[in-house]
Every structure is written in structure tokens, then in C-alpha cells.
């Protein structure tokens, strides 16, 4: 599978040189307050409606000439051709020779009405066939989820997975908690530290527990250790490998994986599969989403997919200048490569979105934390920023001090909901007021204050996203927005955002060190590792 990459690296374009000059002459000294004073339309000009998401970009360090140059950069880099290659199912993950088609998991089934049908009719036969398989698996998964939901005997569902097989489903299940089946408790176990699984197992009974072993490869060490430990606990508590027994393992363990053989060897007979063209961190829409479907049911899972599909269509068809994922990615590049900002703080003013920062850490940093281009050539510029954050208002009482007055500029991304959730809706205006206040304080500052301790320089940038409410469709659109933003910044930087070779080295070394912890053997180790191993050896 050969892929002729249509991209030009960003630093090889004329737009890049022009942006450098523009940054020196105007970008570096840009002042938000002056920009608002000069342009009464700034809010309208720099805000953007996309499916289910409204974005106010006006409190960012950009003006019309900056954005025009950034858009020129996107055109010169070949972002459009690269985006189209993804949607054509070309193997853009060149180091693993795989297509990247998580968007297909959200595409309506053939025979669906209206516009969607027209779009499907034009896809290549291989994609039509993959889409057929996607919907067959989706129907199986939703039917299975409904069976679990209807089974009053099962009260606890334990998802054992890590990385993309944990973060996406865990984040979504928490976000949609208002819609969760009241008789089902969802648990997510990822860490190989036995404390996590052990403390949960003490609260569970085997007959009312269902384990979902979620692993694309079914080889990941952490997941396999936890799965084996759960299996041993289950058998120890009266479970049996015999399918006719009172408590058969096969009824209490399901697998979500592309490795059907390994799941069968584990003794699992109920397996939902998916495909190598679904990257781990893009997999919550596939069988990996089973815990979500169990928690909220089939109609809500379909709404999640529909919201994401609406964002896919926006990304695929909107002109670059009104394409929200593209505008956000260009802003990321402007901050990272010209202003030199090294991190972005996520501030979702929503308890439901409390795991969004962790989810985005994998999505953004595992995708774009790369030092070479897609051809393996070292890059002379920075790539992924560090993504971090906490839900508002907690972050305000922890690290916002540094964001307001510290020497580093940290762009903040606020997310607020117009409608409150189910609980204590009277507190919602206070939550929203805090989000608005922080964004305004960062921009306006209090530069005139004589006392240095109380002085705020202001001119600190932020983006403000608004969702109507935290429902499945809005959440699906929000996640797809981030996926496509990460895609676009990776496209601009010329990297392959879909591999993760950086996790391999440490995995290999851990395998070598584990037996040494028992024997104390430090031969061949560097002095620091040897000293620590002696300290930690049993
Ligand atoms: O962290 C590396 C990684 O391969 C991720 O990309 C992936 O989401 C995670 O491990 C889990 O992998 P698997 O689903 O195969 O267990």
C-alpha cells in the first residue's frame, strides 16, 4: 500500500516565511484590548458556528492579516488534499501502512435518508464494503448493550483497558452520567497497579459483574495483567470455565478487540471486533464504545455518532476560513511555532467533562508529539504543545494564579454549557459567570495597578467554546472537533499523527527489568537505574 503524500512541509512554504516577518513586525506586540478598540466587529469576525459547537476565537492573539497568512499556509501545505486522502481511505498512516477511517464509524448506514445517502453513493467500493461491516458490528454491539441493560442480574460493568481503550469511553460515560441506566454502575480499570483493580474487586460480587476486556491488540501488558487477575478472582469466587456451570466465565467476560484469536484463547466467546484502520485513540466509536452503549443505550449512542458525523461533514466540506477544526489548528501552530507557547490549558466548566483533559492528552500528545516528519526526517520546529487542565472552577483555586500572573503565557480553552445538567441547576449561572470572568480577566488584566502583587498584565489569550447542553450529539461533535483539529495540526507539521513509536522503548526496557526486580541483577544497567533497582528490589 503506497501513499504519495500530497503535503509540503510548513517550513518549506512562502507563507511560513511571511508569517515569520509578520510575527516580528506585528504579531509579537499584538494587544487584544487595542484590537477590540479598533474593530467593533471583532467578536463576530472571530467567532464561528460549527455543528453543535459555537467558538469565540476573538480573545486570541490574531487579526485578519494573521489569519489570512495562516490560511495561506494551510493551502500551501496541502491540508485539503491530505484531508481528502483520509476521507478516501488512503493509507495516510504511512509507517504502519494503514488507512485512517474512524470517521467511517460515524457515517450513516447505506440506505439512510437524504444528504447522507448521496455522500455514500459516491464512496469507493472498498469503503462501501467497510461501511457495511461497520454497521453490521454496530448493530451487534447495540443489541448486546441492550441485552446487558435488560439483564437485572448484572449491576457492575468493569472495563479493563488502557490508553485509547480506556480514556475515551471513561470520559464519555462520565460526561453522559445524567443519561446512565440507574441500575448499572460502570467502572474503568487501567493501571497495572493492583490497588486499582483490587480495591474495586473488594466491592463486587462475581454473579452481578460483567468484565469487558478492551484492547485493540489484546497484548498490552497492563490490560492483560488486569484481565488475568480479574479472571483469577472470578474463578476463585466460584466461577467456572465450564459453559454449563452456574457461573460460567464466558457469560461474565466479553472482549472488544481486533485480535479475535487471543480473546478466544483467553476463554472468551463473546467478542466484538473492529479493524486496524481504527487507531486506539480514535476508537471510542467502535466496539470499544460498548461501555458507553451499556451506560446510555442504543439511541443515545447513535446520537453520539450522529453528532460526530455532523462535525466530520463540516470538516470535510466547509471552506478553510470557516472550518472550525482548521481555524483552531492554525491558532495552535501560530502559538507554538511563532509565539513559542509550549502548553495549552483546558478548562471545561462542566463536571461531566472532568476527564476531557486526560482524554485530550492522549489524543493530542500521542498523535502529534513527534520530532520527525512522516518520512522520518528530523523537524526543525516544535510540534504538540503540552495539554493539561482541570474542570473549572477547581483549576481557578489551583493553578490559575500562574496563568494570570506567571511569566509564561498559557492559552486557555474554556468550555461552557448553556443549559445546566440535572443536578442543582440553580448553581449553573455561578459556574458560567466564573468561566466568563476568567476569560475576561485574562484579557483585560489590571495593568494600571501600582502594587506589583496586584498587577495583572492582561493580554492573555483564550478560546471559548459553547455547547447548548452536554448531550450525546454535542459531545460527539466536540470530540470529532478535537480529532480533526489534531489531524490538521499534524498535517501542517508534516508528521504522521497516527503512529506512536515513542511508547515502544520504555515497554521493552520494562520487560527486561521486571525479572531483575526479583533477582537484583543489575548487570549492564547504568548506575542510576542500578541504584534504584537495588532500592526497589523485593
Ligand atoms: O500507549 C500506546 C497504545 O498503543 C495506545 O495507542 C493505545 O490506545 C493503548 O496503547 C492501548 O492499546 P490496546 O488497545 O491495544 O490495548
TrEMBL record:
Pathway noted in the entry: Carbohydrate biosynthesis; gluconeogenesis; Carbohydrate degradation; glycolysis; D-glyceraldehyde 3-phosphate and glycerone phosphate from D-glucose: step 2/4
GO molecular function: carbohydrate derivative binding; glucose-6-phosphate isomerase activity; monosaccharide binding
KW Acetylation (keyword) present: no
Domain of life: Bacteria
Catalytic activity: alpha-D-glucose 6-phosphate = beta-D-fructose 6-phosphate
An example Gene Ontology CC term for this record: cytosol
Gene3D superfamilies: 1.10.1390.10, Glucose-6-phosphate isomerase like protein, domain 1 (3.40.50.10490)
EC number: 5.3.1.9
First-level EC class: isomerase
Catalytic residues (positions): 366 (proton donor), 397, 507
Subcellular locations according to the entry: Cytoplasm
Classification via Pfam families: PGI
NCBIfam families, sorted: PRK00179.1
Function: Catalyzes the reversible isomerization of glucose-6-phosphate to fructose-6-phosphate.
Family per similarity comment: Belongs to the GPI family.
Protein name: Glucose-6-phosphate isomerase
Organism: Diaphorobacter nitroreducens
